Queue: 3 jobs
Job 1
Amino acid sequence: MNQIYFCGYDGVHTSDFTYDIPKGFPCYLLVLTVTPARFLLRGQIRTCPAHTAILYPPNCPIWYAAANQAYANHWLRFSTDDPLVTEFPLQAVPFQVSDPMYCRNLFQLLTWEFCSGQTFLTFQPDAARNLRSAPVIDQLLSILFSKLRDDLVNGADTLPVRANSHYDYELLDLRRQISSNPQFPWKIADMAAQLHISCGYLQLLYKQKFGVSCMEDVIAFRLARARELLIYTAKSVAEIAEECGYANP
């Protein structure tokens, strides 16, 4: 069973924002940053780029803060017995998400569903235990954590491991554009021009950053989009092919 206690999206804070809960919460906390942020990891403060996610398990110390600029994030405090969450392969360690807009929309839907069934928002898990979880919330949580698991399986960075390059934010934004619009006629030359670097350097940075080449990512996102359309829509193969950037069904 899933139970949401507090959630929100597009929250904005000042540049001196710090969130410090030394003993954590008796429930899970999922945070997805919109801007760069600092995290306390193994006694050291690490600065991570925008579109970083972290899942804090129950009773885990929590510390994160703005990175010397206005800070924004989406967040979700909840309890669950779903193995997608309880057996999530990376907990209390930040990692990058490949499609931040997709995840942001899920946070938005979760917030809307949560608020539609509440007369107020509570910060206390104990006060909400008598509230049943709606089936749509269960489905949205399942989709969100399946997406986050896919990011880990497909090579998303665990941020404490790899050093960040000068082009981190630009690369993340480029990958977000590809994932959101896989049907576009993506070309390496156009991608490189967008970042004002050579084609060879783009391919080197992209491979180092995401573990796949630019065009492999384009194909992967196209196939992922096609899979979703095949499963969840009644569109023909020809229509789906066109929406995924393929002229030939």
Job 2
Amino acid sequence: MKRLLLVIFCVVIATQFASCDSQKVSNSNALLRSRYTVVIDAGHGGKDAGTIGVDGTAEKGINLSIALILYDYLMVSGINCKLVRDKDYELYYTEEDKKKSDLYNRLDFVNSVENSALISIHQNHFESEKEWGCQVWYSKNNPESKVFADKILDSVKQFIQPDNSRENKESSSAYYILYNAKVPSVMVECGFMSNYNENKLLQDVNYQKKFAYAILAGICGEV
């Protein structure tokens, strides 16, 4: 059954990305499985909506949708992975400060997974509606974080954003999880919800699938 699902998955992806080298992704899976368990963190959740798009859409839902698709792609590809959250909720204990506890608990979750690598899914926002495109932030605490970040952004540019000229950035203390994580860790800002056209794309399930696959191809390209 698993082999059949993988075949179906490859056929679907090949249809969406005629230019994709699916064999490269497939050949990377065995090595990637032996090295990492990919922890997928859908940013925000619950009462923490994240940024708000120009049409009032909350970031948290888009993050979760892309994270769930990425999880399915990784699982069908045979790559070990875990979700920090799989529904619309925050991670906190009732007696603690919710905002701080949520971040602490996400980091604790990542640290609790043996040989983990973190992919945090977020969306961007800026005062200028002209800004668009994916950008990836990476932790300075592990040299492989930048490798992951560069491979993911290169993959996104190759498959869905060929005109994207953005460069990745090292995280500052403003990004608590990346700043404190010891394992390879990146935050993928998929696009700008302050940009009308990109905001619409980010809500489209087919676009989300393409984006999730671009992240998958980048993850596999790391090895």
Job 3
Amino acid sequence: MSTPKALITGILGQDGAYLAQFLLEQGYHVYGLMRRYSNPTFENLQYLGIADEVEYVSGDMSDEASLLQIVKFTQPDEIYNLAAQSFVGSSWDQPRLTTEINGLGTLHLLNAMKIFAPYARFYQASTSEMFGGGSDENGEQTELTSFYPKSPYAISKLYAYWITVNFRESFGLYATNGILFNHESPLRGKEFVTRKISDGVARIKLGLQNELRLGNLDSKRDWGFAGDYVKAMWKMLQQEEGSDYILSTGESHSIREFLDIAFGYVGIEDWTPYVTTDPRFKRPAEVKTLQGKSDKARAQLNWEPEVSFEELVTMMVDADLQRLKSEPTS
């Protein structure tokens, strides 16, 4: 039996690293799409100890010709499109770049698959931000909830979602959307609020800073562990036919709750003297609450999130404490 081949875009990001690790454990040959950097950052892959196990291919989501060449060269059995300008806040400052990478980049990749690897299976990283806070009567989002995107990021992802559905229905391709709710880990970028908190709490505990500036503390999100979610991505591509699935924990927690657990873990019960609300970090259109209902994924994929909210928060704080303690002091 030949070795299965997977192409992962966004290989250097949080999800790309965890997915590459999981696929390598399953015996896959993993190709990782990389933009041509003068000094690429392999920090996430190195953190997981797999940086040397991935075969890197050079390309760009905004350059259709490069994607055509990559798919033709790699002939992947599975394609995981995780590449994105994924920070919601930056999408307001860079709406065109966000649209080109997240929206048109997905179109380019699907077209490359249609031409050179029509037998392959395609996973599109969709997002709960597409809902924009809309929900059913129970306050949850399901696969049937109407979309109401409230940022250039969410709008670009909605285009990617529908073009994936369109290629599946129009050309008979195996194409799947994973509508993932917020998923975090020690590999999360520091621009994201969860990692900003875990890193900030660790620095405050170690006396390296004394203030943490955040936006809306009352925002609620359905937070899970990225390592759990990548397993479901793979499971989506092992079904008889492509479909669309929500991945979520089914619980929503506020940023205040995140702060309670994070500061409490390092022995600081009252965090209010350390946290300042900064209006610069508030979005032009705020999404107050997201909470997903992942019954379809749990039933059809036999998938369950394994890491609890409290375990996730303490995992992230602990990882940042260990990072900072191991850094050389000047």
